[in-house]
Amino acid sequence: LSRGLGDVYKRQAKARLAAVQDELGRTAADAKEAARSAQIARERSLAAEGSRRESEQRVAKARERLAELRGERSKVGVEEERASGALSLLEEQVRAELGLPDDEPLPDPESIEVDEEPTEQEKANAPRDLQRLRRKLIALEPVNPLAAVELGEIGERHRFLSEQRADLDKAMADLRSLAEDLASTITEQFS
Fold first, then answer.
1. Given this model, what pLDDT does residue 112 score?
2. Which three-class secondary structure state does DSSP give residue 190?
3. For the ranges 67-81, 115-129, 131-145, which has the lowest average pLDDT?
């Protein structure tokens, strides 16, 4: 009987050993799968990190380019203002030479009629007249070519300050009215 019992224990032990070995095999397979999944996750993480760094570099470059473009836009704005001022100055000179009022549009250059061909006397006097005009021009004080632009800026500043003063005057009047209302309310409440 003890022999029979020993055989039963052996069979049970062998069955348990087989079950444990099966479980160990499944666990080892699961561990390999987990290690493979972890490796894939690490690779994906590294790829994502590389992509993130690359994206950050692109964003940094884009920001630098944006700053450059803003600087260029500012420079172009300044140049545009200078050109506008010079154009205004030229327009004023043309108006003065043609005797045109400010509200009248400038004529098309093609439509301006030139007087008849100069006479021989006018042709002969042209160099002398040109020298005389050059001397007059030199005698004039230096002209500020940006004066028209500066005048426009000063006019704009004057307009802005006038609006600000009007707003302040209105605010003062509103405060005075509020103070009077408050004084009358206090008098009514505490009298």
1. 66
2. helix
3. 131-145
Distance of CA 42 to the CA centre of its chain: 41
159 vs 6, which has greater pLDDT? 159
In this prediction the pTM is 0.36
Residue 99 main-chain phi, psi, to 5 deg: 70, 35
Q: Are 152 and 85 in contact (CB under 8 A)?
A: yes
The whole-angstrom separation of Cα 4 and Cα 104 is: 130
DSSP assignments along 9-40, one per residue: HHHHHHHHHHHHHHHHHHHHHHHHHHHHHHHH
Under a CB-based contact definition with an 8 Å cutoff, are residues 84 and 149 in contact? yes
CA angle (140 as vertex; 135, 142 as ends), nearest 5: 120
154-175 pLDDT per residue, tens: 888 888 888 898 889 889 988 9
Q: Where are the alpha helices (H) located in the chain, listed in sequence order?
A: 2-98, 120-139, 147-190
Give residues with Cβ within 8 angstroms of 126, minimum separation 6: 118
Q: What is the pLDDT of residues 25-63, one digit of tens each?
A: 999 999 999 999 999 999 988 888 888 888 888 888 888
Buried b (16+ CB within 10 A) or exposed e, 69-79: eeeeeeeeeee
Q: Give the torsion through C-alpha atoms of 57, 58, 62, 64, to 10 deg.
A: 20
